[in-house]
Amino acid sequence: MTAEVTTDRQQPARSSEPVPFLDISGATADVAEEVRAGWDEVLRTGQYVGGKAVAAFEKEWAEYCGTDFAVGVANGTDALHLAIRALGIGPGDEVIVPANTFVATAEAVILAGAVPRFADVDDGTLLLTPETIKAAVTPATKAVAVVHLYGQLPDMTAITQMCEELGLILIEDAAQAQGATWNGRRAGSFGHVGCFSFYPGKNLGAFGDAGAVVTSDAKLTELMLSIRDHGRMQSEGGHYSHGVLGMNSRLDGVQAVVLSAKLRHLDEWNQQRRELMAIYRELIDPERAKLVEQLEDGEGVHHLAVVQVDQRDRVRELLQERGIGTGIHYPVPCHVMGPYAQYADGPLPVAEAAAARQLSLPMFPHLSQDDARRVAEGLNAVLAELDR
């Protein structure tokens, strides 16, 4: 789906001022008053770990994602690690992971005692497909960690069906996809679990580290609630009853207040991201720069605006000279990183080629549309200059 470009957020062009890659101050300002009021209540009650604010956010987040339950945790990596353990995945098991993801996806698999099985991705979307998943399946494969990279879901209809046919557990790494949908269903609602990061720069970001797992499995939820709290089994004896090997990964009340306040703005902010992405798609020269493709049945939330270009590092330098900030996500595929190369069993050409060419353009909801045009025009100018 493509968003229409509107004019209500346009601001005068500021050609002399830098365009940052990311600026979260606007989102902070949107919620500051509500957050202060919520923090006053946390101060009054002293419920800093868990408590009413956490319970309220977990309920709101589950409802938003279209699941029955949400379990707040300390960060997105813990969300994956905890969920993988709760699903009974461990030593002797393989979990298929895309090679082009933030390292936390593979890291969580290893922390749970399992083995990451790296898969290649589609050249247009840079997402897993049923074909790339099947190519990585072995008799030891127990699960697939589907990463909704850059804020877009892959073909979840086909992937869900394939996992059912092969008897594979489906895990959604939705750290970059808060609010994204496939055929109207939100990220996190397709798999056995959906795992989210609320790092400050995410579409829904805390004022520090935070994360959550969503699911509609009541028994799995009970187990995850136990694991996140040192393995305590409240139903079997309370505070000093430790029925499973746990960890300390609890969402605190201070961050829950922030997340609840921001959640009320999330759909609006995501729409603003879509409008900015529409400008990039309209203006960026497709002959010189390849934007990540969008799938028709999905509606992405554009956590990142990623383009592939030749001479990526030089392009970055020239954009910086024009006052345009950029990022790189991700310059090294997981399967060739030092700690993870031992789990690779061959080249993954699409992920490797993309890693050398990917460039992330400015993308945040309070970026003005005029500045987005400046970014697109600046990129075109830089690429034309390098072609001469």
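The above is record 1. Record 2 follows with the same two-line structure.
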Amino acid sequence: MTEKSLSEAEYDAITDAAAHWCMRMHAHDCTPAERQAFEQWHDAHSLHAFEYAAMLEIWDVADHLPRVEPTAVVVPFTPRSRLRTYAIAAAISLVALPLAAFTGWEAGWLPSSYEHYDAANGLRQVTLGDGSQVELNLGTELVYSNYKDQRRVTLKKGEAFFKVSHDGAHPFIVHAGDGQVRVTGTQFNVWKYEDHVRVMLLQGSVQISSDRVHGSVPLTPGMQASYRQGDATPSVQAINPNDTALAWRQGKLILDNLALADALPLINRYLNKPVMLADANTGAIRIGGIYNITEVNNLVPSLPKVLPVYLTQNQDGNPVLNSIPRKAPKS
């Protein structure tokens, strides 16, 4: 079956299915069986993947729209149009907009542009619509939306170094994990792995705030803020923003005598299957060295050769590091 052979009803069914799966994949109670069923549906037809990708783009934008009371909306059907797709996505996100949503730019609700970037296969440098420069680490994904009153980036995963074009009236906001970074023009680095986020400031000033509490924490050059999901306020410390911290921009991972518990998040961001620790004793073992970020996969099997550890595998297929018990001294 080709896309041209689809009837209007069949196309509607695919769009509705994409909306349904978008809801379920973002739901906290989504089950493994549902995820497997989604994968089968997604891969069954190229149009399934296309419609789902379009729905995800709109979901990202709708996630930041203001919550308003539901209003009756009458949307004329336009076959295969973004208007219809947007209407469905708006219903998904429980945001009801009047038909005048096309003037949402003036209200600051809708962006004038939406850009998606990823660095799946290597480092990447991009220029955002406002002229800001961004360097993306391997495995990084982010989206940029330009609103009337602000410029907005969502760092979905990975790490990015920002050189933001100054615009005091149009602040630049980076959403990462459970918080956000607000700037007008500066240079800073944001790293996100699972629910852990670190923000390092090199030039200018930024405000770090949590999505859960009011208020913000200011950073000045040479400072770093870190937070996890559920933290009331970020943890702030002075750092030396040297070549070690930003070595990824040259394609390097530098581990400077770190405990494995601290080193593994830096290693795992480059792996398809993250490495786990068997216990706290294993996590206390220290590691150092300089590695190519494109060859981190080769680092894991070599660890038993340089550290007192051995590898096992858990039921999910993740490699697990175990410390080698020390032999008791002979009496």
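The longest strand covers residues 151-163.
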